[in-house]
Amino acid sequence: MFKLPEAWVWDFWTVDDGERYHLFFLYASRALKDPHARHYRASVGHAVSSDLVTWERVTDALVRSDAPAFDELATWTGSVVRHPDGRWFMFYTGARLNEVGANVQSIGYAVSTDLYVWDKAPGPVLEADARWYETFADGNWHDEAFRDPWVFEDPDGEGWHMLITARANHGDVVDRGVVGHAWSADLETWELREPLTQPGAGFGQLEVLQTHVVDGRQVLLFNCMVGDMPEAARAGGVVGGVWIADAKSPLGPYDVAGAQVVDDPSLYVGKFVDDRVTGQTKFLAFVHDRDGAFVGEITDPYAVSWEGDRLRLS
């Protein structure tokens, strides 16, 4: 388990350099007292491990920029990939407050040669486009949701794709969560495209997306709290948490409407990680709440198995 006595730890992403696993995580001081305040004080920490269990904290990766900047409020969730030239690219969410105090999110990146020292590129490189995506100006949501970039190489080697937590610009205002999409030939210049899913699948937002193959089965992993779901989607006592949907390919189509909650509703922001030693897929998440109180620590890895369409953790 990875936890810090002085700080809450929540959203995270990992990358394997071939020798060690690198954990990048959001954290904020417990001196804030109110865990909800952590979002506006988030920095990106860094830890390394050889076994996904014992972690050594190292120098932080990113902090917010001085104003005016797209990430002047906080640095939020992202992902890391390696360019063919050997450089590492970290894509991350930048948060700022607009003139009425609403949170506006956009996406930038930083580059490293060693995964330890990161240099931010001028940003943002992607912002919500009203042709396809809801913006705060629409007045339907509490922020401008455009975040959590998950980047992966095209299956046919034709550039790179990014999945984005976003909201459509049409449909029921509490049911507009979609998988946003962008494409790049070189990881530096990005072309925003229309969403890969349609609104109306039962989610106000699909947070921290990940595509992965688990025991030969292509899936889409995402996260949504019950408070961000329309009333109809909560029928039968459905609870929010980590969700998993069947996928035909990394780019879909995804069965978001048929998604199932992963075992433990106390967990949030699940991530699949391939264990280099065993060849097995492992699952990590952060503990969101216990007995009604926010926890803010990352679990040890779970083994995963399928029970029909349900993903079981052990």
Automatic annotation (TrEMBL):
Pfam family, one: Glyco_hydro_32N
Glycosyl hydrolase family 32 N-terminal domain segment(s): 19-224
Keyword Hydrolase annotated: yes
Statement: the UniProt record of this protein carries the keyword DNA repair: no
Domain of life: Bacteria
UniProt EC number: 3.2.1.26
Stored CDD domains: GH32-like (cd18609)
Broad EC category: hydrolase
Annotated keywords: Glycosidase, Hydrolase
Signal peptide: none
Similarity comment: Belongs to the glycosyl hydrolase 32 family.
Listed name of the protein: beta-fructofuranosidase
Organism of origin: Terrabacter aeriphilus
